[in-house]
């Protein structure tokens, strides 16, 4: 039982990270209907930004409180990732908006290859380990919960609340939802569609960067190829929850995290990714709209 | 003009090609069609009319297998006497085996294929057999070559009928709207149907195109004996070419008979009042006609 | 009057001002983008700790290139392009001009050139020197041509977006590797068998997923591709996991001449030639050329058959297909399995060429590269795809040859490192420049009077 709960805690942590990335996928898909393949690499980029800032700060100020250090890392990662995603949208995706459906997908794949190789070229191909930032572990009823796990889950909850508020209660969120429903009509009603889409990319990148920072803090290592697998898993989460749905993305993320840690704990760690992908395939085949998505009705 | 009292039972020959019995279709809480029964006679043009949202296209989609009806039976009897229960068949088998072809309200052409290719795709099943399910055709056997030549001849025949022969090698998406409508009908005819379902073929056509369409449709009936089921808003088309009219409202049949009978049915007039502007005009004209008839 | 004369000047002045402003912004943005990643490098010191190395000069170069590039684009390139466009519109195009001899006979010339290619390479670079040209350029490009032509059946013709095509490549490669090792079957037996097995897998995977549409189909195929790769990694008893399967037997010339060094019927021995691995490579070149041409031939024939037309119709409108009595499930399955079959052929060729297979070769990136070649080439166009493969694969291979770059960027510069970076950038640039690929138009499969190419603006890209 304790073992089970321990795995639940681990799964929850991992799932929070996936959920944060998944929101970026689901928002972009919702608003312009494209799978932003490069989103996983934006997450990786965020992690690297946090890593470099960490090295800069620790080499200048010694003995800075960890909280402030983490906050600075997160802020730098968010800024950098947002700037990248904003630029990519403007340069690579916007010219293709409304054209051939495959073109943006191929561009996004190209962008993903570009980003991971850019980091490989500029930062080197090796793993980049950092010393543990947060190492306290609490023992609650025989279950060990690391402080970093608490931070990750708490942060996810806080960010989601803020995010939920923005999307549902502000005029920006209204503009996003309007653009999602009907881009042309939204433009006719005076919504700056380009700006709304840009902001969506910025927001998605911000969350991915937080996820990247958390990932770095949790595993203590960054590597250029880290964008793909977490990216695909986060996308799986978005699909699982019902693409286009924000709570769906988080639920999907948590589910993927739980499945992964429980599968590794009770079956075999080797096939944990197979389990994730199989679940993705099964969900899509039997319920393509995901858990919270609206079913698509075929119009004849 | 005196009101006529003809009903479907009075038609001279009683040889229904399509029998719809107690058809119901429910979408969630909405009853789109409620216990609808009607027949379409062989060799006739049957029109299905009714205000927007009356369930006409839903009937079509049930007949052609795109929707599975909640209840009811749709049977199609071919000239050979073979009978098919359409509600039990998947859509493509309805075209392939039962020989029911259809067009769509929003034209669905293969816009990137040429006009000719559109008509060749329609002969898929004949050609598939002739090519020995691709294998023999890959080897270049003469059987497929002959069938291929025959398929081009058939396509040419229909292109001439539809006045599209000049545009045969142009992409279908490049045709003007009226020509696209005619092409869609010609394509449906290339499947060799016994029963042809047309979903608002005259929608959006100008008077000249409308005329060309009428010609094509009456030609089809005259030359091939294909029975036609037609959804139409354009009353001039309905009244001119159909032999038999079925009127729907809120998924139920409110009138059924010859065009003249239906035109003068007070229920039909009531149903049409207060709907679309153009249709209101039609109805007002019709009421005036009735009033004149009453005075006589 | 004075107003009119000063107008162009003031327009020119405001254009320069705008260009300066945009160049400045571009500099600022690129500073933000690159300051962490280019300005600083994380390296490990002797104690394995991460330390930062500063590269402010390099950062400055990046920023300057971005700013100056942006300035030049806005100030000169864009007006120039606009002027050229206007000129092109104004110029009456003479469409009746007969195509040049080269254009009319492009296919024949290309095939002859390919057949002569290894011989020319041997003549120019010598037997041993030709290795690089035949292997790295010839065979490497042709494998991608074949894979892209195979995938083209699925994506370009039937409009089914498949992101896991590499799975069938893997099935073909492992089928050959395992069956030849365990049962000693020869290449010529296993080549068709690998194709059939891949087609079979195509059907098994295709059946459940083909009712999905568009992006969902793409993601499920991606998942299946990854599942197959992960199974190859983890099912170590059979596949030896990440170690892969090595010393896969070589192919022979229909069993007549062998390329095994010890064999009595060794090709070089029989013909009294000096021993060299180059002959085997030349043989492999012709083998993959034949396989690729077979793929092209079958594709061209199939397009004129009912099933091929049904694929294209399916790409255009699935519902209309069903209304015409076409069984869309079997039609999709044939596309999927025939595409998979060619992937399987290519896979077994890959195994024979490398003599070694491991899951490393079948990562998602490969699927992405193949798909991007199909899309960059222009979906459905065999010539466009071949050109795209040559440009993308050959171009990145060429980087290895560019040793002179070392003189510019210093001796530490290794061009290979930039291969995938440039590949990715090229994908983005080509797509933005030509969203429909190199060849956007479509050749009709039948005609009454004349064969007119269908403009890309009418063709659809499929929903499944």
UniProtKB/TrEMBL annotation, chain A:
Membrane topology: Multi-pass membrane protein
Principal localisation: membrane
Domain of life, source organism: Bacteria
Keywords associated with the record: Amino-acid transport, Cell inner membrane, Cell membrane, Membrane, Transmembrane, Transmembrane helix, Transport
InterPro entries membership: ABC_transp_permease, BCAA_transport_permease
Family the entry assigns: Belongs to the binding-protein-dependent transport system permease family. LivHM subfamily.
Name of protein: Branched-chain amino acid ABC transporter permease
From TrEMBL, chain B:
PROSITE patterns: ABC_TRANSPORTER_2
Annotated InterPro entries: AAA+_ATPase (IPR003593), ABC_AA/LPS_Transport (IPR051120), ABC_transporter-like_ATP-bd (IPR003439), BCA_ABC_TP_C (IPR032823), P-loop_NTPase (IPR027417)
Natural source organism: Shinella pollutisoli
Signal peptide extent: none
Residue ranges constituting the ABC transporter domain according to the UniProt record: 18-275
Record-linked Pfam families: ABC_tran, BCA_ABC_TP_C
Domain of life of the native organism: Bacteria
One Gene Ontology MF term: ATP binding
Keywords on record: Amino-acid transport, ATP-binding, Nucleotide-binding, Transport
Entry-linked SUPFAM superfamilies: P-loop containing nucleoside triphosphate hydrolases
Family: Belongs to the ABC transporter superfamily.
Name of the protein described by the UniProt record: ABC transporter ATP-binding protein
From TrEMBL, chain C:
A Pfam family reported for this protein in Swiss-Prot or TrEMBL: DUF3382
Segments forming domain High-affinity branched-chain amino acid transport system permease LivHM N-terminal: 19-117
Identification of the protein by name: High-affinity branched-chain amino acid ABC transporter permease LivM
Transmembrane segments: 24-44, 56-77, 108-129, 141-171, 183-204, 216-235, 278-300, 333-356, 368-396, 417-433
Organism domain of life: Bacteria
InterPro entries: ABC_transp_permease, LivHM_N, LivM-like
Subcellular location: Cell membrane
Membrane topology recorded in Swiss-Prot or TrEMBL: Multi-pass membrane protein
Segments forming a coiled coil: none
Keyword Membrane carried by entry: yes
UniProt entry tagged with the keyword Membrane: yes
Gene from which this protein is expressed: livM
UniProt keyword annotations, A-Z: Cell membrane, Membrane, Transmembrane, Transmembrane helix
